[in-house]
Amino acid sequence: MKMKKIMSIAALLAVCIGFTGCGQSTSSSATTSAPSSSVSSGTTDKTLDLSDLSNTLVYAGESESTINPILNTHDEITDIIFSGLMKYDGDGTPICDLAESYTYDDPTLTYTFKLRDGVKWHDGTPFTADDVVYTYDVLFKDKTLSASITSNYKDIESVTAPDEKTVVIKLKQYNAAMLGYFTIGILPKHLTEGQDINTMPFNQAPVGTGRYKFVKWDTAGGMIILEANKDYYGKVPNIERIIYKTVAVESTKATMLQSGEADLAWLNAKYADSFRNNDNFKNIDFKTADYRGISMDCSTDFWKQNADSIGVLNYAIDKDSVVKSVLAGRGVAAYSPIQLNAYGGNKDADIYSYDLNKFAEEMDKLGWKKGSDGIYERNGQKFHFTIQVRDYEEERVDIANVCASQLKKAGVDMEVVLVSKFDWDAGYNGFLSGYAAQFDPDMCYSNFVTDASENLMHYSNSKVDELLEKARHTENPDERKELYHQFEKVYAENPGIVLIAFLDGNYVSIKGLSGLDTTRVLGHHARGVMWNIEDWTLNR
Questions:
Q1: How many domains does the chain have?
Q2: Measured between alpha carbons, how far is 247 from 349 in angstroms, rounded to an integer?
Q3: Are residue 90 and residue 28 in the same domain, yes or no?
Q4: Residue 30 pLDDT exceeds 70
Q5: pLDDT tens, 303-321?
Q6: For 161, which of 129, 207, 374, 451 could close a Cys bridge (C-beta 3.0–4.6 Å)?
Q7: Rounded to whole angstroms, what are the CA distances from 526 to 140, 218, 420, 503?
Q8: Residue ending a domain, choose from 174, 192, 210
Q9: End-to-end alpha-carbon separation of the chain, Å?
Q10: 3-class SS at 349?
Q11: What does 49-88 look like in DSSP terms, one character per residue?
């Protein structure tokens, strides 16, 4: 078994170095395009030693098109290449990273960070405060930036560097979540200044200060090769090399594990269950804040006319049966986007139950009447809308199809449209979404506040805006919790998403991989599993 896995990895790596295809690479929803050929870093290529592959971890990851922490916030790889002023510990608390220490002056709303000595970029250039100023200027000043996280930095007034080891960040007003947002990876000014952040070549050949450094990206082979940063300012990882396979199709990840072509993967619940009780593998189950829902595009004509009928759909979907069937019981029915957050979970927001009689009553109150085909109609319009789902995400497809079947029986025609990539301009009425607020509940601000940076579905509710703004700028934790409880109830009454379920984070690894710590609550796509990767060990 050991020899088989080593030979499999050797074959994979040889294919990558030889630039020939051996896997599937599917485009993602990121804003930039992946390189069409192999990209490598000249500063690290010479360190690539193929003589011993026993300490190389093959991770069946996500489909990638960019490795830039500002543009890609959904996948693992940016977190281990780049570092931020702060980082999250296992409990989700922001602690110092590139910053050696910090102070906060409440009267002036000012953070002062003292930076670590001796930190270097992966190309050997010294890291300085100018890099931090540059990165934050991009985040809150660059109007051309196409990123989902810019709303997190709107309260910054200025970022300055009195000297090369000090960064001063002054806010316009108090922001309770700000310390967590200082975890964003810092970009090297000397390599990216003056370029279009959205499309620059650096996005496919990144240079960071983190635990692993980029070596090579071969899109034909679907591989990104990383090596441990021997000059890392913290603990140098035990695992010397990572081959990050850019895999989109869920079944492919499971097959790669079974065949010895991968050592670790996040799998959907059913695939993960197929490995349970197999002595050659480990099932590592995390809790996540990752939910799935039917997100309605409120800018489309159908929902402009029928937004009052989104919430009532909850009565027609048996969410517990979705959890039991599609998720194999590994999750919980959802009623609030932050119900699993420490600041959420207001049971008064759990206002819908699966009740077809109640559904029919509420539809009648709203003026909907069933037509001869059994589908509801109002004002000469059928209750028909389209939802796009990426075809390679089997679990999402299954969730959408089960919900569509249940809605059809109740008299609503939700058409599931399979796409290879989300198309926000095609006129679909929504998509099968996934989001998470695994740390501060303010993480949902960008999704639900009018015109916020990740509000892709153009949801707008003045009361929601008021509550989320106030909660963001309130210091007292008890007062914040009350505001978020109010938000949960207000949102439930006038939602833009029919929430379905929260997922568990089901990872599967080979037997010889150790050190994964399940303390951390993971995010969207079960992101965060590598938070302590420097402590992992691999024994083949």
A1: 3
A2: 37
A3: no
A4: no
A5: 999 999 999 999 999 999 9
A6: 129
A7: 28, 25, 21, 9
A8: 192
A9: 8
A10: helix
A11: --S--TTEEEEE----S---TTT--SSSHHHHH---SEEE
